[in-house]
């Protein structure tokens, strides 16, 4: 028993501390300060708890019995809306920690995810060499020493609280095989996502060349300016000083040299114009603002060749960054606003992801130059197109997933993967749809639909059990004690979180106008609550449907013909399979099945004081039209292999960058200390990869359950 515990402790601490290994930790964009040494007085247990808490927060899976599936929500958000919310703090409602959803456009079926803020502690370190375009950052005001006690205590709390799959209606499996254990995302390189474009092709980074264009500036534009000149130009461009112009002396006065300097300033610092002046017999290039502060937001129209498409499309390869984080980094290095980028869907953070991005009037040459500046990013496959990318245009994502240290026999693995390939998995909404704290987001959504605004305010602001930052705990305590929004807001150094936004609204509009106060929160964040409630109802109803009727279509089920739902009649039931059956998310524009499950919908909504026949809300934004969702998803392009390995640090397959660098694929021995299952499969939009992996492993993917498994040895 002791050896078993020691062995598992090694697995957990190895996975937790793996974030500190150079090959895994996100490499900095600027030199990081040396980390502060931990106090020896913390003791080995507290160090372990801190490491394990970090592991869950950073979304690396470890498990004693079943793999801890810590992944990210990949719901799509509109670029403009996402740009507004790029600084939403980590204290927001939910940040996908235990499910990975395929990308999809916002709709009643698809809840916009919350992109991780650039200005978190890690983000600030990563952005040390970058310009602060917005010109304002909020510090959390907490020292590392001050947080250590809180982190350990919060982790202990999190062991006791939170949701399980049972709480959100995830109760059924479709196959009868025996489950087995494995570790997901022991390394973020064990989870690779390739976007499937609108043409059905899987995106790969396989070409770093730049399209030949006679009108592109020469490579000299990147080296002609000194570091001091670049700094002065950056400050001028971003209005960080009182200078109205910057003069650069032309030391070697030739027309060619002056032309290169003009090109360098105009291409590297959008919004600046240049002119040549004679001063005391010397030539100067003078840079100045042509159109005031708005110049930065709008790419220069007159400098872009008419024969070239307005959008540069490229494939972005990134490691351990979600899509909005990546775009924020690119925009800061390019010195442009994030909203000139477009994409078809967002991607997971703790993974290697490959997707197509489009940017307005930025040359492929400038983009390719970033490959020399940025770590953990690679840009390539450049082309000029007339149109941007649009959310929802993708056909899905292709996943390459490694489950390390599996315990299943070859026969168990074969049965599990054959079932996934032939039958599929229940298309449940994953756990991150419902939040990770003691107050589920669907409870807030239910209160909104009930028009119970005092309850909405209370659910968001009241003290709660579970893992939270110390300043959030103090804010909630102040609110419970005083009900003074201004006093509670003063406890929040990071005021862009949902709690901070609601408190600002209450300070502005007063306690008697909670609706307006709540309206200060960005629209997509508000809608997330009611979409969470829809998902909660859908999960429960699908579990009842499968329990009642099994995995075959029955008369009264619904199927889609085009975009219209129709009933399956008894005469043609044999024309359908379970993969054709859909279930509605509740709303005013859907129909319900004609069997027992219709009454189950009515009973569930009635119990929540909602009228299934009137899902329109007094406030139009909160009226639910509803949608339809397939109950069983069968992945495409499914393949797998079991490999043996001895070194847990080695990668088990090549990435696109490995292939570009000519690295040979790994060679596996016939026997090894460990075994891993390497899976490949494709999923359509709005499906959760963790629900597919749940079906293979037969496990509860909730943080609460995983935490209990991971801490069994402590008892």
TrEMBL record:
Domain of life: Eukaryota
Record field: compositional bias (Acidic residues): 133-154
Keyword Metal-binding tagged: no
Gene3D superfamilies according to UniProt: TruD, catalytic domain
GO cellular component: nucleus
Subunit structure: Interacts with SIRT1.
Family of this protein: Belongs to the pseudouridine synthase TruD family.
Name of the protein this chain belongs to: Pseudouridylate synthase 7 homolog
Native species: Rhinolophus ferrumequinum
């Amino acid at each position: 028993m002791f050896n078993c515990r020691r062995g598992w402790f090694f697995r957990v601490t190895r996975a937790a501390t793996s974030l500190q290994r150079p090959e895994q930790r996100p490499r900095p964009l600027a030199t990081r300060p040396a980390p502060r040494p931990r106090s020896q007085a913390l003791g080995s247990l507290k160090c372990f708890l801190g490491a394990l808490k970090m592991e869950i927060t950073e979304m690396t899976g470890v498990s004693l019995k079943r793999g801890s599936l810590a992944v990210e929500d990949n719901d799509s958000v509109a670029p403009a809306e996402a740009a507004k919310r790029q600084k939403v703090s980590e204290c927001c409602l939910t940040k996908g920690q235990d499910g990975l959803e395929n990308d999809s456009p916002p709709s009643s079926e698809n809840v916009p995810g919350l992109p991780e803020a650039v200005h978190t502690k890690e983000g600030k370190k990563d952005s040390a060499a970058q310009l602060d375009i917005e010109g304002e950052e909020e510090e959390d005001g907490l020292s590392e020493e001050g947080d250590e006690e809180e982190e350990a205590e919060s982790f202990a709390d999190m062991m006791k609280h939170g949701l399980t799959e049972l709480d959100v209606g995830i109760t059924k499996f479709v196959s009868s095989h025996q489950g087995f254990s494995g570790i997901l995302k022991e390394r973020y390189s064990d989870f690779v996502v390739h976007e499937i474009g609108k043409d059905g092709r899987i995106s790969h980074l396989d070409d770093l060349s730049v399209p030949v264009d006679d009108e592109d500036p020469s490579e000299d534009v990147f080296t002609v300016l000194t570091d001091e000149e670049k700094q002065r130009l950056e400050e001028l461009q971003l209005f960080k000083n009182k200078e109205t112009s910057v003069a650069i002396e032309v030391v070697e006065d030739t027309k060619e040299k002056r032309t290169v300097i003009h090109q360098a300033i105009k291409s590297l610092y959008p919004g600046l114009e240049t002119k040549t002046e004679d001063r005391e017999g010397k030539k100067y290039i003078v840079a100045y603002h042509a159109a005031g502060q708005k110049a930065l937001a709008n790419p220069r129209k007159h400098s872009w060749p008419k024969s070239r498409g307005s959008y540069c499309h490229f494939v972005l390869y990134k490691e351990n960054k979600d899509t909005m984080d990546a775009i924020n980094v690119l925009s800061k290095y390019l010195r442009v606003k994030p909203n000139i980028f477009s994409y078809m869907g967002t991607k997971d953070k703790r993974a290697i992801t490959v997707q197509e991005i489009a940017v307005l009037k930025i040359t492929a040459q400038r983009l390719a130059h970033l490959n020399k500046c940025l770590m953990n990013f690679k840009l390539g496959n450049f082309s000029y197109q007339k149109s941007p990318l649009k959310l929802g245009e993708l056909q899905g994502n292709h996943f390459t997933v490694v489950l390390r240290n599996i315990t299943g026999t070859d026969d168990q693995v074969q049965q599990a993967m054959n079932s996934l390939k032939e039958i599929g998995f229940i298309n449940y909404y994953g756990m991150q749809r419902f939040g990770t704290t003691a107050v589920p987001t669907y409870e807030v959504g239910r209160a909104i639909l009930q028009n119970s605004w005092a309850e909405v305010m209370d659910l968001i602001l009241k003290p709660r059990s579970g893992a939270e930052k110390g300043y959030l705990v103090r804010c909630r305590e102040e609110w419970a004690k005083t009900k003074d929004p201004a006093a509670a807001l003063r406890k929040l150094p990071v005021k862009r979180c949902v709690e901070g936004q609601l408190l600002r609204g209450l300070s502005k509009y007063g306690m008697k106008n909670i609706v307006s106060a709540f309206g200060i929160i960005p629209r997509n964040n508000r809608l997330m609550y009611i979409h969470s409630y829809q998902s909660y109802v859908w999960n429960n109803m699908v579990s009842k449907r499968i329990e009642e009727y099994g995995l075959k279509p029955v008369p009264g089920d619904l199927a889609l013909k085009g975009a219209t739902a129709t009933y399956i009649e008894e005469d043609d039931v044999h024309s359908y399979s379970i993969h054709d059956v859909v279930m509605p998310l509740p709303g005013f524009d859907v129909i319900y099945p004609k069997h027992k499950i219709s009454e189950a919908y009515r009973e569930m909504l009635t119990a929540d004081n909602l009228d299934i026949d009137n899902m329109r809300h007094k406030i139009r934004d909160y009226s639910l039209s509803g949608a339809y969702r397939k109950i069983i998803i069968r992945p495409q392009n499914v393949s797998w292999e079991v490999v043996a390995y001895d070194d847990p640090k080695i990668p088990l397959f090549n990435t696109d960058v490995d292939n570009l660098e000519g690295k040979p694929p790994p060679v596996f021995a016939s026997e090894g200390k460990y075994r891993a299952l390497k899976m490949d499969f494709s999923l359509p939009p709005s499906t959760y990869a963790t629900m597919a992996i749940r079906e293979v492993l037969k496990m509860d993917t909730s943080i609460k359950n995983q935490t209990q498994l991971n801490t069994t040895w402590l008892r």
